[in-house]
Structure formats: C-alpha cells, structure tokens
Amino acid sequence: MKHKDFIEIHDYTAAEVQEIFELARDMKAQPGKFSDALKGQTLAMIFEKSSTRTRVSFEVGMFQLGGHALFLSARDIQLGRGEPIYDTAKVLARYVDGIMARTFAHKTVTDLAQYASVPVINGLTDLSHPCQAMTDYFTAWEKFRGELKGRKIAYVGDGNNMAHSLMYGAPKVGMHIAIATPGGYAPDPEVVAKAESDAQQAGTRMTITNSIEEAVRDADIVETDVWASMGQEEEAEKRRRDFEGWMIDQRLMSMAKKSAIFMHCLPAHRGEEVSADVIDSEQSVIYDEAENRLHIQKAIMHVLMKDRKR
Fold first, then answer.
1. Exactly one of 41, 64, 132, 297 is catalytic; which is it?
2. 3-class secondary structure, 165
3. 25 counts as catalytic
4. What does the pLDDT look like over 6-23, one tens digit per residue?
C-alpha cells in the first residue's frame, strides 16, 4: 500500500480499505502477534479539540504496538501561539515517527501532511472524521459477516464531518448511502461532488434528501450524530429548534430492515438526536464501534509506520 498519510478515505481504493479491515480483524483477534510492530516508534498526538475516544484509542493503540504516544494539546505546543505549521511539521518530524492531529481547520492537517516527512493521520477536522467512518464500516463488516456490497446506510442529522467521511467510505465498501438533513444543514458541495463521482465509479447510489423517512426506509444501518458538534455550542439552542422532529426513535427504526443496526460515534445525547430505547437496544452497536476505533487505528498506524525508514 503506497500511502504516506491518512487524510481522507477518498484517497484510498476499495482494495486498500479492505486490506485495512483485514489487518484490523487480525489485530483484534491476535493482539500479541503485533506487540512489537512499532517498537521504538513515537506518535505525536496534536489536540486542538479534546476527546475521550480519540486520545485513549491512539495512545493505547501505540502502546499495544510496542511504541509510544506523546499527547500535545494546543497549550503545549507553539502552534497554539502562532508558530507556522511549516515549522511545527518540520521540527516534529525530526523527533517522531508519525503525527496524529485532531484540529478545527482541515487545512491544518493537510498542511502538516504537506510539510512533515513522517506520516500524518487525520484524527478529526471540521470537514472530515475518516478514522470514525472507517471504524463504522469495519463494525458493519463484522456484523454482516463481510457482506456489505449492495447494503444501505442511512445517516440522519447535520451534514457535518461525520456525514462527509461516511459519504467517502460508502463506495469503497460497495454500499449505497442516504444522507438526510434539515434545510440549511446539507453536506459540503465539494465533498458531495467527489463522493458522487466515487459512487458512480463503484456502481453505488448516493442520496441527499430532507426526508428522514426516505433515507431510513429499508436501510441496513441507521446512524446519527450530535446536533451541535464541539465548537458549535453557541448555536446549540438554534440547532435544537431546527432539528425538532429529527430524533431517531423506534418509529423510524421500524422503517429500516428488521436486521438493521444503529450507530453513533459518541458522545450521544439521549432524548435529543436519538431516543434511549434505540441507543440502548439490541440493535445498537455503539460500544462495538467505540472499541473498534482502537483496532482500525492500530491497522492504519501499522500500514503507514511499519518498516518506515527514518
């Protein structure tokens, strides 16, 4: 696999996504087999946005691969004080073997990737959340025993970074995707155009709609996210009004297939974007998703950092 960085699922082929899934499966089944895979290597973890799952899964993942993870908040590095990304990337690359960045602006991650000589992993930006989307499709791949081709995923909510990465991922695993958002919350047009092109090449369908029912009908996966993401707290009350009637409840889940599973990247607000009786039901796989962040990210780090020559 000839990739230096992991910035967008769009950059990877279907075969490469499958390769990561299979590696994650093997790492999950036999963690000890990979315990020295990244021995002596260090991952710098840049966090402009705090996170429970991202920090713990990357830090534990590096430890389980025999390496070390270094947590760097915006207060800990000069990037937060106006140092050019060019300098930060160049200097960090002299110290570490890889960089994971969880940032606000997507350009921060792409600039790090451009200027750093070591692999850069997108831990989340305002535009995309590829590690989570890879995790979600991997979890579905497990649940449906490797048979994703022709299935349908429905995403209901804000056309945010999660929606974007799910749109990029669906064609790579052969799935149809329907995105339902209220008016004014549609996904980024540039992302839509790229994802539609990928879908056409893959022979899959992508639907963007303002109808929850249209999206959820006959879906194999129903997924949602919080209505106000980190950094949007001031908009929370307006978004709560705009998203009234958009909660995933049992009525909506009944429109999906009987075998459908429910997904949410967490943290979740029960009674807002999803009802408690859905997220805590047997159809919900949220904790499997949370665990699988560890395995998918270990696989991504292994692919990018194993056998890398300093």
1. 132
2. helix
3. no
4. 999 999 999 999 999 999
